Amino acid sequence: MNIYKHDLKIGLKTFIFWIIVLAFLLVIGMTKFLGVSGSTGSEMAIILEKIPKIILIVFGMGEVDILSVGGFYSVLENYIFIFTIIYAIQLGSNSVARESIDKTYEFIFTKPCTRSYILFNKILAAFTYLFVFCILNLIFSYAAFIILDIDNTIVKEMILFATSNIMIGILFFSMSIFLASFTSKTEKGISNSYKIFMLTYIISVIYDIFNWAKLLKIIVPLKYFRAVDLLEGKLDILFVLISLIFSLVFLYIAFKAFEKRDLNAV
Question: Which of 129, 136, 189, 228 sits between 20 and 30 A of 8, alpha carbons compared?
């Protein structure tokens, strides 16, 4: 049995749903930009001045000018950033817990393959969907500009946003695998991953409100790649490396834990 192809087939319907939502959000979102940057632009500027800073930060508008194409796109990408993390958590958790959900542990793990080999192929299939999702984010972004005839002056910035999505997506993907590998109950593993995501989101808002020092940035993954920096063409290589190192550590421990896991208890 080709485990990789089998898991790709299982995840296809969910993947199609996510990319439809992605395409819809990008096209509809950039359509809204045409209205914001047009006759209502000055009115929008007045409205934004009256909105409390904390509200602007929560919606990703705290550091950017949403009346510019780059600023508006960054706000749109802020929502896609969150979608990417949610999808990554779902993919990572399911790659470990799928057999528990489908009650097929006894079937698949009696095959002449090691647990690590099986888990590797399941993770690879899940990562394939995550990677393609992030690439399609970039492709759909270009397409939205073309369809709506918007002058695209942020080509480089789009690539940086897509890259940052992949990095943080991989981080939460590997974290969810790590947590699922130590949890006997499927629901608890994915629940813990979402709780950590919500906690990091809250911390990221607090980080912006109080303008914490860069030294504390390492505990705030959602601020590894700030929109204002990406719009200036800057991608912090240090945090790319930190994201990859944390991801590799999570995966290494997950594989070790899964090898010792009591499958009869799931």
Answer: 189
> pLDDT tens across 97-131, in order?
765 555 555 545 555 567 778 889 899 999 999 99
**Residues near 178 by Cβ (< 8 Å), separated by ≥ 6?**
250, 251, 253, 254, 257
Residues sharing a CB contact under 8 Å with residue 71, sequence separation 6 or more, in sequence order = 61, 64, 65, 231
DSSP-derived 3-state class of residue 9:
helix
Distance CA 172, CA 165 (A): 11
- Decide if 254 contacts 96 (C-beta within 8 A): yes
Report yes or no: 92 and 86 within 8 Å, Cβ to Cβ: no
Q: Residues of 237-251 as b/e, b for ≥16 C-beta within 10 angstroms?
A: eebbebbeebbeebb
Report the Cα–Cα distance between both ends of the chain, in Å, rounded. Answer: 23
pLDDT single digits (tens) 210-246: 766 666 778 888 889 988 889 999 998 999 999 999 9
Using CA atoms, how far residue 204 sits from 67, 157, 214, 225, in Å, is 24, 22, 12, 11
Pull the structure tokens for residue 143.
């397409």
